[in-house]
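WARN retry 2 of 3 for item q-0093 after timeout on previous attempt; input resubmitted unchanged.
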Amino acid sequence: MRLRIRNRLRRVYYIDDRSNETASERNAMKHGNRHVLTAMSALVLLIFGSRSAAGERSAGMSFARTMIAVDAVVDASLDDWHAFYKVCHENPELSLQEKESAERLARHFRKLGIDTTENVGGHGVVGVLKNGKGPTVLIRGDMDALPIVEETGLPFASRKTAKLPDGHTVGIMHACGHDMHQTVLAATAQTLAATKSDWKGTIVFVAQPAEEIGVGARAMIEDGLFTRFPKPDYCIALHVSHEQPSGAVGWTSGWVYANVDSVDITVHGVGGHGAYPHGTVDPVVAAAQIITALQTIVSRRLNPLDRAVVTVGSVHAGSKHNIIPETATLQLTVRSFTDEVRKEVLDSIRRIAIHTARAMGCPKDPEVVVRSDEFTPASYNDPELTATAAEVFRQLLGEKQVAERPPSMGGEDFGRFAKAAGVPGFMFQLGVVEPKRYAASQQEGGEPNPTVHSSKFQTDAIPTIRTGVRCMTALALTLLNGD
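OK item q-0093 returned
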């Protein structure tokens, strides 16, 4: 499939990068769409009229005309989608609480005539758009936000708060771009629904809850995502990137996001007065030894060509200056890509914790708990599908706007979908930084851009929406019409 699609792409795509056009330019385009479509159609006929192969000419003209139709929908709808984005941004919801976000997307799907089911695996929404016989493509966008007080200063900044189970109140913010993910999902659905005459097959739109805590994809799968709804032939998604400017996208072949494990270690000691440590077994000192020894796992236990991370993110012990406590607790995040490396790292953590505690004279072995409920498996981009997508993006945006990206040690549970369905999956990165600001950040001494999960993270919304919808729609159309 890949070679056929890539050869076709070289013949049919026109580069039309208006990602960073002004509002007046968009309005001019909107009012002049009919003339632009006529001119582009004439151009397509001129280009392909000289082709000797009638089949190639017909396929090329058909696809180019489809992309003209796609851009007509995008240009006519961009202001509405921006308004949708601002509503999403201003009204974030924490993981497992995405009720309003789910209802908003469900209403949008139904308005488009998409068969819509709510409450799949919690607040998950599944929209099925059938259009004759052909491949089935799953397109996913996630909905949940983070417990962060927003500090962007945007006029539509979130002022939402929520009370956590422990009783304290936190701010809520879309600091990981899931507002943009929802918007691109909704806009792509609208674009594909409006261009049904140009493709055949089935599209499954998935609005996923609880990605930030790594349980949403699994919950939807366990609730029958692939038995109650059409099983996909491909799974595709995107994620915002603070490392690229708006109008640009990135791709990674193979492993793209890591396995994520959470590990809790409880070290047991013998408490007592801080002035008389010889009468105690200090769990704080034992925990410190364990923390230091854990850093040798990646540097000394693993093959230097393998990648892993062991980070102790939390240490808790004691209540007062002069009291040696009975216990010390550690919380770790562990990242890896392959099952073999994951097993070696987790086994090493357990071994180091137990034997270090014994060497320190602790009265009993520490408890080492791998939180299986919080495990997120690594995400893998199918190389063939990735090569096809990269070619689509290059022809759509131009070579300079498409970059290969290294794998990330971040976590993303999108990989569960393709793995559970046994089909190719692909997630690409969508640049969100205003281009001048991005260029300034790349200069020596330039101010770094706020990262995802920062209280100051924000997107260059309109060009980002446009690029995301065009790329996602073009890739879906390529897969739907690839046979």
